[in-house]
Amino acid sequence: MLKLAIMPLLCGCVLLTDAPMSNGQEPDVDCDKAETQTDMTICAQRDFGDADDELNAQYRITRSTMRQQDADGIPETRGAEDALVKAQRAWVSDRDAQCTSAGFQARGGSMEPMLVANCQAELTRARTEELKSLADGLEN
Hints:
Elements: H1 2-18, H2 37-72, H3 80-103, H4 112-139
Helix pairs in contact: 2-3, 2-4, 3-4
């Protein structure tokens, strides 16, 4: 009976230790000096956020270019914007699946979220370049 009473207390302590900050604010981390896994994960997630912001800005530019292509083209050549939207949705799904798979290198461990975020940042930056090239090609 004593073992049953102690077990919930031990589990509660572990949960409190691993709980995220309750105020919803991210800790102040210097990513140039990140040493702990938590700090490295925070920095990887920030990097992905920055890459995602860049992707969204380029996507708006590329979509606008495709929209203009559709408006300027003859009816038989229209559909560029729709094709881009479908491709982007598929790409997001593929990126997330690939990065979830990359996380399995440390499945269940503290490194898993960092591996996923690093993968997402890398693939997102590559996609941003693809979208830029697509827009640049249509403008020429």
